[in-house]
Design brief:
- By secondary structure, the chain is an alpha/beta fold.
- Helix content is 24%, strand content 28%.
- Helix 9 runs parallel beside helix 10.
């Protein structure tokens, strides 16, 4: 099975603490490295997680609060000092484009790589990145500023050839491609070998949803049906429900409700308020609604 791995670089919220970095994650999927949000200090966390800087190709910013994007210009500057030449693609709400360009002009000089900005309309669900093996969609959220989450999905692959059966029937290599695409094989004597005997079904496509800052959205579950792993902000516990409503954030229980209603495989909690010295209170409240829940912490790695 191909690589699909999530690295937690930061899972705290806006107020800095000594326990948590602000929001950022790295996703390794197939042969690509993607970043979700880029808070202050992200480049140091990226070093700690031992993912190569040079492999990072796309950064997806959810919204323009500092605890989700203050680290971007620092990381770009560092890439320049390291001699990067490959393009870096930044996907973010449109308002970041001119500001990022000003910062690049002011803080960096003679970058040997291009920063390509892709504006994201946070009000609609849309494909924001697509290639032969994966697709990334934006998911509209409800926060105090324009905000969206991101859904990373593998594309279906062809079935696996059963090498032992292929060899047993003497199937020529020239026919392997046809068989992968569903063809039977006809022996020289006219016997038909059905495709089902020649292949093993492909691995089911996997998906990861990153739901950043948002108030509880009952309708969100319908957009996340069957996701393998869901990261959903869980800034507060039940004890601070009024604050979650005031500041357009979610509680751990609400995150678990979305996970349950969407039928996801696993829920990851994060974006913790600095009020909590022990996030297990959030875990316990979430588990009352949805059983397969995990707290995230810096340098955690989750395999899909």
């Amino acid at each position: 099975m191909e690589l699909f791995r999530v690295h937690i670089l930061g899972c705290g919220s806006a107020l800095p603490t000594l326990r948590h970095n602000a929001s950022s994650q790295v996703v390794e999927v197939r042969d690509k490295v993607l970043m979700l949000d880029c808070a202050e200090g992200t480049q140091m966390q990226l070093r700690r997680c031992r993912v190569r800087f040079t492999k990072l190709s796309h950064v997806f910013i959810t919204h323009l609060h500092g605890d989700h994007c203050f680290g971007l210009i620092g990381m770009i500057s560092t890439f320049g000092l390291l001699g990067r030449t490959a393009r870096l693609h930044v996907h973010a709400p449109q308002a970041l484009g001119p500001e990022l360009e000003r910062q690049i002009q002011f803080f960096t000089h003679d970058l040997d790589f291009e920063v390509v900005f892709h504006p994201v309309d946070t009000t609609v669900r849309q494909v924001v990145y697509d290639d032969r093996s994966i697709q990334v969609e934006s998911i509209p959220l409800e926060h105090r500023v324009p905000c969206c989450g991101y859904l990373i999905q593998e594309k279906p692959t062809l079935p696996h050839i059963r090498r032992d059966v292929i060899d047993a029937y003497g199937v020529p290599l020239s026919q392997v491609g046809n068989i992968k695409n569903g063809a039977d094989f006809v022996m020289p004597d006219g016997e038909v070998i059905p495709n089902s005997r020649l292949v093993v079904p492909a691995d089911a496509p996997r998906s990861y949803a990153y739901i950043s800052d948002t108030r509880y959205m009952p309708g969100l579950a319908s957009q996340l049906k069957g996701v393998n792993v869901l990261y959903h902000e869980s800034t507060y516990g039940d004890d601070h429900l009024p604050q979650s409503e005031k500041y357009f954030h979610s509680t751990a229980r609400q995150a678990a409700t979305v996970a349950r209603d969407a039928g996801v495989g696993r829920l990851l909690l994060g974006h913790y308020s600095s009020r909590y010295e022990d996030e297990r209170v959030l875990l316990n409240e979430a588990q009352e609604v949805f059983s397969n829940v995990s707290l995230t912490n810096e340098m955690d790695v989750f395999e899909l």
